[in-house]
Amino acid sequence: MTDDTNIQKEFEHQWKIITRGTVDVLPEDEFQANIKESIKENKPLRIKQGFDPTAPDIHLGHTIGIRKLKQFQDLGHKIVLIVGDYTGMVGDPSGRNSTRPQLVYDQIMKNAETYQEQFFKILDKSKTEVHFNGEWFKEMSFSDVMNLAMKFTIARLLERDDFEKRLKGGVPISIHELFYPLMQAYDSVAIKADVEIGATEQKFNLLAGRTIQEAYGVKKQCILTLPVLVGTDGIQRMSKSLGNYIGIDESPDEIFGKTMSIPDDVIFSYFEMATEVTLEELEKIKQRLSKPDVNPMDIKKGLGECIVDMYHPAGSGKKARDEFERVFSNKQLPDDIPEVNGQQLQYWELDPEKLYLVGLMAKSKMAKSNSEARKLIQAGAVSINGQKIDNVGFEFNVSDYNEIILKVGKRRYLKIKS
């Protein structure tokens, strides 16, 4: 077999894997030529994706890109992750109809710590390059910033659908938002990216990277866009801020329970986008879902098992399924409800004889804060011993009850003992 034949065979193998589940591969001819050259020269491509740590958890929506990076990594290419400590302070305006609230640097860095831990649930850390874009942005002088701004036009920026809609609708656009695409693009200059991947809404930013690389005399990257995963509501994109997310660092029971809450009409897209099932398996799942005598819940439970096992030890999915069926199908309580006693309550500076429910929820981490606890109570998501509580000022005496089971949402329980 000739070298050319071997190169073509390896190219076809890589191209099939790289393009699975993608939306745009641009420019396709250039992308293919780069892969062939990489194979011929035995020189891996530098594959970039950026993440702004605007919230602490990585969710299934993020993993679509990270798993694509893993595919590139398994093919021998170099993965370069950009943690946007500086772009995160600006906030990506893609898909936004208003200016994002600006985060403080300390909060971004705290979130970034969890990102770095969660990246490597999927990627091989020893084969991954990680950069914070503050490495180059904090060294820039104002003259450097002006030079970057000269590389792009306002007219080009206003071609973006989100900016155009906001402009026509009279919704303010802050000057700093216009810098976001330029900053993301300059990341590609700094790390000399050969390929950048991102969700479909990132297409403008990814193409801007090509323009800015060319302006700085760097070889232009190719781009690859991926579909957006809808959240557990089945309508809007998965997002921490919308609360419709499944975090990969959550417990097996939480991941499984949230998966069970997705609408039946998105089961297939979750299998396709959030798991590694083969194309043959996907076709079988599609056929099963089309049969009127098949209960979609049975297929959804298989999906839940699959997702749990991706981010927890093998067998965790089956345990989570068994627990779900025991608790929700048979209306029983979980086996492993966490407990607090009077001593713990006093340590939290809570009075067992006049226990403030909002404070208990916040201190026990059943809610992230007092304000979230109040919202959950107002939404009717909180009960004590099966009795719904709708009073945000509710207080009770622990000794008045033989046993107290606090339930928040569908899957969070706490047992309080005197």
Brief sketch in words of this structure:
This protein has helices at residues 3-19, 28-41, 60-74, 87-90, 105-119, 134-137, 142-149, 154-157, 161-168, 175-191, 203-215, 252-260, 267-274, 279-290, 296-311, 316-329, 342-347, 357-363, 370-378; strands at residues 24-26, 46-51, 78-83, 128-132, 195-199, 222-226, 339-340, 355-356, 382-384, 387-388, 395-396, 404-408, 412-416.
Look at the structure and name the CATH superfamily of the largest domain. Answer: HUPs
The largest β sheet comes out as:
6 strands, mixed
Give average pLDDT, whole number. Answer: 87
| CATH architectural grouping of the largest domain | 3-Layer(aba) Sandwich
> Main sheet: which strands, in order across?
1-6-5-2-3-4
Structure description:
There is one protein chain. By secondary structure, this protein is an alpha/beta fold. It has three domains: 3-226, HUPs (Rossmann fold); 252-329, Tyrosyl-Transfer RNA Synthetase; 339-416, Roll (Structural Genomics Hypothetical 15.5 Kd Protein In mrcA-pckA Intergenic Region, Chain A). The chain is 48% helix and 12% strand. The protein is built from 19 helices and 13 strands.
Strand and helix layout:
Elements: H1 3-19, E1 24-26, H2 28-41, E2 46-51, H3 60-74, E3 78-83, H4 87-90, H5 105-119, E4 128-132, H6 134-137, H7 142-149, H8 154-157, H9 161-168, H10 175-191, E5 195-199, H11 203-215, E6 222-226, H12 252-260, H13 267-274, H14 279-290, H15 296-311, H16 316-329, E7 339-340, H17 342-347, E8 355-356, H18 357-363, H19 370-378, E9 382-384, E10 387-388, E11 395-396, E12 404-408, E13 412-416
Parallel strand pairs: 2-3, 2-5, 3-4, 5-6, 7-13
Antiparallel strand pairs: 1-6, 8-11, 9-10, 9-12, 12-13
